[in-house]
Amino acid sequence: MLALVSVVLSGCGGTGSGQDPDPLVEDFGIAFVMRPLAFDAGGALVQQDIRTAEGFTPGGDLFYRDLASPSAPTHNVTGTITGGLGDVKDVEVSYDGTRLIFSLRLPDIPNATRDEQNKWDIWEYDIPTDRLRRVTTANSSMAGDDIAPHYLPDGRIVFSSNRQRQFRATLTDEGKGTGPFYAMDENRAEHAMMLHVMEAGDFGPPGLPDTPGGNIQQISMNVSHDLDPVVRADPSHSGRIMFSRWDNMGGREQISLYEMNPDGTELQLLYGAHSHATGTNNSTIQFLQPREMEDGRIMTVMLPFTGTNLGGDLTLIDTSNYIDNTFPTAANTGVLSGPAQEPATGMEVHTDNSISPGGRFMSAWPLNDGTSRALVSWSACRVVENGLIVPCTPARLADPAAVEADPIYGVYIYDMDNNTQIPIVVPQEGFAYSDVVAVSPHQVPTIIFDKVPGVDLDSEAAAMNAGILNIRSVYDVDGVDTAVPDIATLADPALTTAADRPARFLRIVKSVGMPDNDTKQIPGTAFGASAQQLMREIVGYAPVQPDGSVRTYVPANVPLAISVVDGTGRRLSSRHQNWLQLRPGEEVRCNGCHDHTSGTPHGHPEAPISAYAGAPANGQFPNTNNANMLFSNPGESMAETITRVIPDTLLPSADLHYVDYWTDPTVRTPDASTTLAYAALTTPAPQSAACQTGSPPAWTSLCRAMIHYETHIHPLWSVTRGVAGADTCINCHARADNMGAAMVPAGQLDLTDGVDPNVPEHFKAYRELLFQDNAEELDGMGGLQDIMQPTGPIDPVTGLPTPEPIIVNPPMSPAGALASTAFFAPFAAGGTHDGYLTPEELRLLAEWLDIGAQYYNDPSVVP
To answer: Which of 64, 166, 490, 675 could be 218's S-S partner, Cβ–Cβ 3.0 to 4.6 Å?
Structure first.
């Protein structure tokens, strides 16, 4: 250890023999957490997974020093509370530098249930009086874990919590059979952490009780974790909350930086959706613990989900000029090319699970005192050699058999200008010092007051517990007009009919929370062919106007996704893999759509300018109907005009309902009104009748379409069809004819009743539709057998290929209706099954496939 400290000091400009052992005393206090490293039963270090927000390592405590000096006295702030068996994390400093706020967890209670077990709570420490108080009360803390607190400039506190106040209230309003529960993240590993705000309370007068925090409100509606909230001071973002969001929908899984107001409005991606392959050797990393620098850049700890000895690299990100590492903002397109990210230190830090020559960083706190210095929690690079722990050298790192030693995180002041560092808290074996902060006054950001209905928010939408989604044109993709031939042509009724426009409706989809196993065990089979989409509900459809615009009410305070569909209800492109949120009365405006693979990331405010100019200066779209008083303000989209003139058109519908308000009848006959309604089904509809009827439709923010295979899809195969109702799907798609004799199912597809012999949780018909199967033939003895062909491995005895069954690919795919052409093609005009299913039935099948072809879409109905 002495050798290590000597190496560090010599790299920091030490003066040699005779130097004062404490050459630097900074005139500010520091606070940090010290905890033991955790090891498994085999003695290996437990590698933290950054997605494990509820994680707890016994033995962590908060320490305070009134000077940033190695020799300053150290005070254990929380030892009397934890008894040395609890844990502390997420330390923050008040703006006046007199208080610390942090998360503390008391020791485990043996054999306790989740409701009885200790949770992460928020505590506050008043430095001048040396007093501690619990901000979250004991009763309220039983409702969930509260972590990552941060002071808001108005005196409230923002924090991350799995108490899920709004989510649980929505469950109650929906009347779900399971009752309110705590939803799991999309990996179904932990209860999802979402951002909340609360009043802070305060210390009571001497001898009187403290006032706990209260009036807790949930402000973020993610389905996985929202972590590490901080309040920005940069003038263009002052008062905004910046945080790390775990985007985990479908096949995507990454943690990027987001921003929003303290009331949850104006949620926007800040940085990183396409910047995750920027680690060592292009390895995948995530962006955690964002901190703002004085120059507006963002310092983050950049690391993979797990496997790097609890730490990563410190990176500075220019979020003012870049959306992604090599993707500048619209104003800088063609001017800047990146990279937006640069290392904060001169050390060679690896983020790809290899030994890191420059060690690793666990946390950082920019001092923002006019210098480029930061307090850092850093572990030097060390390897194990002949049973001893020795410093890394080029020769040792070149040894392919080199084994990295356990980390040894201490606290240092790092100077980014000179690439030097000085130890402040000397590390020791078996422990980690982290969550370091400088205890001094710092800039108070602007107070952003909560928006008010009727002033900042739409009062009618707020009264409906709805927001307004306003898309300028779905044909605008990353600032490019992708309409054929162009948006203006599609918008002109004289040039294009409704049937010739590809985009006809916007489908609004809501996530369904998953309970933990203590509430109800949901087996993997409940999701069906794929669990990537978990469960989904459809909350309604809004018509896409001729210019591709949409303006519609959507439920507030729930995670939403959208899809653009054609006139038959089939999604036109890949799934929207980000969750949207709107607060009551909030209107969210988007220029258009985006290509996540290569284009502008979702929801970024610096996206390319709109590809669509909107209404002309005279306020009259060409060849539109003056009789309907559809006069536009210059630049308005058609959706903005029609919802202003006819407010009822803001209401989405359970049906795919289209009315041609736009075509001037003196130019051509207006398009006929069309409806694909659940009410036209002869089988059970997936939505309540109350949400399907009325004029305008009786849509509310609680309308839901929940499609389950056994209840809503499977009955389609038994509906009588054809001449005099003599036919059903299962007349042909069965393994026995009407006389009971064996027959090969038409198309090798058996749609009859009965459970699958191998997966009894599913009907066999479901497996036939969505899973590979063996082709069958009559065996000549009144039964069926697999069709075998000699295509298998060579038999060593006969020298001939071994027989194996012919595989039949399923006609459907959980990727959606467009990936299920084998099923839908026969029902197209002129196809072999043309007219066999009604348009309403085909619509039901398409939307079920588009949301994931789940077996169930409500955990309360899962057996």
So the answer is: 166
Cα(429)–Cα(388) distance, rounded to whole angstroms?
13
Structure tokens at 352: 């790809």
Average pLDDT, the chain: 91
Q: How confident is the model at residue 19 (pLDDT cuts 50, 70, 90)?
A: very low
Q: Please tell me the distance from the alpha carbon of residue 144 to that of residue 117, in angstroms, as a whole number.
A: 10
Q: How far apart are CA 767 and CA 753, in angstroms?
A: 12
Beta-carbon-side half-sphere exposure of residue 676 (alpha carbons within 13 Å): 23
Edge-to-edge strand list for the sheet holding 268-271: 226-231, 241-247, 254-260, 268-271
Question: What CA–CA distance (Å, rounded) separates 314 from 423?
Answer: 17
Q: What percent of the chain has pLDDT over 90?
A: 80
pLDDT tens profile 348-392: 999 998 999 999 999 999 999 999 999 999 999 999 999 999 999
Residue 685 DSSP code: P
Nearest to 120 by CA among 105, 133, 140: 105
**Phi and psi angles of residue 859, each rounded to the nearest 5 degrees, phi first:** -65, -20
Each residue's pLDDT tens digit, 420-479: 999 999 999 999 999 999 999 999 999 999 999 999 999 999 999 999 999 999 999 888
Count Cβ atoms below 10 Å from residue 18 Cβ, excluding itself: 5
Q: How far apart are CA 570 and CA 566, in angstroms?
A: 5
What CA–CA distance (Å, rounded) separates 770 from 9? 64
Peptide bond into 715 cis (omega under 30): no
Length of the chain: 863
Note whether 330 and 610 are within 8 A (CB): no
β-strand pairing of 560-565 with 807-808: unpaired
